[in-house]
Amino acid sequence: MPEVMSNKRERLLNKLKTQSIFFGDFTLASGAKSKVYFDCRLTTLDPEGACLVGDQMYELIHAEAACLGVTIDAVGGLTMGADPIAVAIGMTSWKKAPAEAYQIYTVRKAAKEHGKTKLIEGNFKAGMQVVVIDDVVTKGDSTLKAIDAVKDAGGTVAFVAVFVDREEGGCDKIRALGYPVVSLFKRTELIPADT
Question: Whole domain around residue 124: which residue ranges?
Answer without folding.
Answer: 53-190
